């Protein structure tokens, strides 16, 4: 692995001139026609994302039937044939991606917020992983949730919880106790 980047956590509210909330979309691909396999997964994801819809972050969950549909919705072109530019930052969850602690992820997220990013997508791939075409256009950030393989449904829950934890770190909320 390469050298770890240094991250700094800011707990202040974003400057008033930013004025807009960061819209976060937790997007996933499911071969079940855009539906989750387990209702419990949806309940847990909605629990964590529901806690976020306050202040500077508004979060939602979307399930897509195909990678192409996710790309189109995120403003990334025609299913991978082009690298269309979007104002949204897309985080591609992939086991080969960059590893960050919760504090590092919070600092990264805070940096995007403070830098004026208004839309962030966290993309969970299908059960068999991202296709080569998707990996080729993952130009923003490829992020690993850890060295263990997770079912993609569970990865959605972990990603939702980490979004909430990052928010808690940035707000100085007691949810994150640093362990």
Task: Write structural notes for this entry.
33% of the residues lie in helices and 21% in strands. By secondary structure, it is of the alpha/beta class. The chain has one domain (26-171): Alpha/beta knot. Helix 1 (39-52) packs parallel to helix 5 (152-171) and helix 3 crosses helix 5 (152-171).
Topology, element by element:
Layout: E1 22-29, H1 39-52, E2 57-64, H2 67-73, E3 89-99, H3 102-114, E4 119-124, H4 132-136, E5 141-144, H5 152-171
Parallel strand pairs: 1-2, 1-4, 3-4, 3-5
CATH class label: Alpha Beta
Figure out the total of helices: 5
As for the number of domains, it is 1
Please summarize the sheet with the most strands. Answer: 5 strands, parallel
Query: What's the helical proportion of residues?
Result: 25-40%
Please state the second-level CATH architecture. 3-Layer(aba) Sandwich
Shape: globular
Give the amount of beta strand, in percent. Answer: 15-25%
What is the CATH superfamily?
SPOUT methyltransferase, trefoil knot domain
Structural class: alpha/beta
Question: How many β-strand runs?
Answer: 5
Unreliable residue stretches: 1-18, 79-84
How large is the radius of gyration?
16 Å
Q: Biggest sheet: strands side by side, in what order?
A: 2-1-4-3-5
CATH topology: Alpha/beta knot
Average pLDDT rating: 81
Termini, distance in Å?
Answer: 23 Å
What is the string of helix and strand elements? Answer: EHEHEHEHEH
């Amino acid at each position: 692995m390469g050298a770890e980047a240094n991250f700094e956590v800011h707990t202040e509210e974003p400057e008033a001139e930013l004025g807009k909330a960061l819209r976060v979309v937790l997007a996933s691909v499911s071969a079940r026609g855009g539906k989750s396999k387990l209702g419990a997964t949806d309940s847990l994801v909605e629990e964590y994302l529901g806690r976020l819809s306050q202040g500077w972050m508004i979060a939602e969950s979307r399930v897509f039937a195909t990678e192409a549909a996710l790309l189109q919705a995120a403003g990334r072109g025609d299913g991978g044939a082009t690298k269309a530019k979007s104002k949204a930052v897309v985080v591609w969850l992939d086991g080969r991606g960059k590893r960050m602690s919760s504090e590092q992820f919070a600092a990264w997220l805070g940096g995007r917020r403070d830098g004026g990013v208004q839309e962030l997508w966290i993309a969970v791939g299908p059960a068999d992983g991202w296709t080569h075409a998707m990996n080729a256009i993952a130009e923003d950030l490829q992020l690993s949730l850890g060295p263990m393989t997770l079912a993609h449904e569970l990865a959605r829950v972990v990603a939702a919880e980490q979004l909430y934890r990052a928010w808690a770190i940035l707000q100085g909320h007691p949810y994150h106790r640093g362990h």
